[in-house]
Write a structure and sequence with these properties.
By secondary structure, this protein is of the alpha/beta class. The chain has a single domain, classed as P-loop containing nucleotide triphosphate hydrolases (Rossmann fold), CATH 3.40.50. The strands form 2 sheets. A 5-stranded parallel beta sheet has the order 2-3-1-4-7, sandwiched between helices. It has a two-stranded antiparallel ribbon with strand order 5-6. The longest helix is centred in the C-terminal third of the chain and has 25 residues.
Length: 239
Amino acid sequence: MSDASVNSREFFPGPVLLLGAPGVGKGTQAKLLVDEFRIPQVSTGDLLREHRKNHTPLGMMADELMSKGQLVPDELVNEMVAARLTEPDTKHGYILDGFPRTLNQAEWLDGELATSALPVIAISIAVPERELLERITGRMTCPVCGTIYNVYSEPPAKAGHCDREGAALTRRPDDTEPVFRERMKAFEAKTAAVIEYYRKHGGRFAEVNGNLSVDEVTQSIRGTLLRLRQHGEAERQEK
């Protein structure tokens, strides 16, 4: 499968959902897809901030709930996503970021796109939990040049110091094993069910090995996306 076939003007990515546990690299891969196919990234976090900043009716409802320490319900998030998907830049596709996060949201999204020519393609990035733990707890950053190191896989020449600047490396306060375990619990409690939901829709779901280089994972995702879209198109033509 050539790069040219993936980049052809006739290929529209459609809605794409990247799934996976914390630390698998969803954000990195999403940005690469956005840049290549020139499609938007639909982030529920961004939508929520935008609605609140602009004091839209949905934003004011969210503000009221959050001021009381309450979570924004699925129904409100769904409305924000629905409004975003009507905008012209989503015509040929978009990358979903942080949505659907729950089974209810996944079922709602399928209903919302029931009449769409291109349903959601869900690609799960799989990485062993031990590797994820090391990726997160081993991460250190240079405060001067921003270079990221990992004490397990890409350590600096001098422990604790940047190879370029010599500056002392810093670690994010939430890059700890207890925080990682809590995030994994939250993932298993909600998002794991979303992966299983799409796994049951074999023609729209695939899993790729995320324990490779960034470029290798990107190539795998691109090839998988094209294959699933071609399969879906073939099925539609047979009906």
